[in-house]
Amino acid sequence: MKLNLTKNYVVNNILTMAHRNLLKTLHNPDNLSDVIIQPVIFTLLFGYLFGGVIAGSVHAYLPMLVSGILVQSILNAASGSGQQLREDINEGIFDRFKTLPISPIAPLAGQLVGDMFRLLISGIMTLATSFLMGWRPSVNIPTLVIVMLLAIFIGWSISWIFALVGLMVKNAELIGSLSMIIILVMTFLSNAFIPTNTLPRFLQSLVRINPVSLTITAIRTILRTGSWSNNATLVLISGVIIIMIFMPLTIFVYQQRS
């Protein structure tokens, strides 16, 4: 019975910290922009800017755009983990957490649990904006849920990488800038927004080995056929491998500095 109470105590601590991090996102203009505003802006911008040139119309371009914007938005939201952690550390908030009667792992775990909801919000904003622009999925609601869960899972696994960076790099602004550059390069150097056969051959090779391309291809296949694919399985396996590597590393670094 005592063990159950201890587990419940830790879980309550983690959920409290997750709620705190969500409130911090909602009250911070920069964090709010990453989760809510950027998905809307990028969907509208790329849809109306490139739709006619690439596909002949915005409506014809949306099936290609939706999966690319969804993955980009999820990754962009995931990158906020490291910056938020570093901001809390630099402001001395984590030192204050140490003085509270809470589980030592709760501040870190709460950040990562809160990220799940941030990723969900970002994904919903992308799909809702696409729907308002005229996109109509050819699959049913359960399949859309599977697509969303797959995108959130790979985004959450990458959150552990950004969390580790946040614990190791001392400048929060530098973390944010580097994260944005990396995500933009990986997204634009993928099949997110254009047909890859229009690229030079050497760029096509880079696009094929880009893990973002693999994720987008998996999502597009599910949205087009309504069925699970080998690419989706590879994405799932990749996420598990990332978590197995970076979760222990992040927890170790966190405990060393605690």
Instruction: Give the number of DSSP strands.
Output: 0
- What distance lies between the first and last C-alpha atoms, to the nearest angstrom? 29 Å
- Based on CA inertia axes, which overall geometry fits? elongated
* Total of domains: 1
> Strand count, sense and closure of the main sheet?
none
Order of helices and strands: HHHHHHHHHHH
Class derived from helix and strand content: mainly alpha
Name a few traits of the molecule.
mainly alpha; elongated
Give a verbal description of the structure.
By secondary structure, the protein is mainly alpha-helical. The protein has one domain. Helix content is 83%, strand content 0%. It has eleven helices and no strands. Helix 3 crosses helix 10 (211-225) and helix 4 packs across helix 6 (106-132). The radius of gyration is 19 Å and the shape is elongated. Residues 1-5 have low confidence and may be disordered.
List the helices and strands and how they pair.
Elements: H1 2-27, H2 29-55, H3 58-78, H4 80-90, H5 93-98, H6 106-132, H7 141-168, H8 172-188, H9 201-209, H10 211-225, H11 230-257
Helix pairs in contact: 1-2, 1-6, 2-3, 2-6, 3-6, 3-7, 3-8, 3-10, 4-6, 4-7, 4-8, 6-7, 7-10, 7-11, 10-11
Brief description of this entry?
This protein is mainly alpha-helical and 258 residues long.
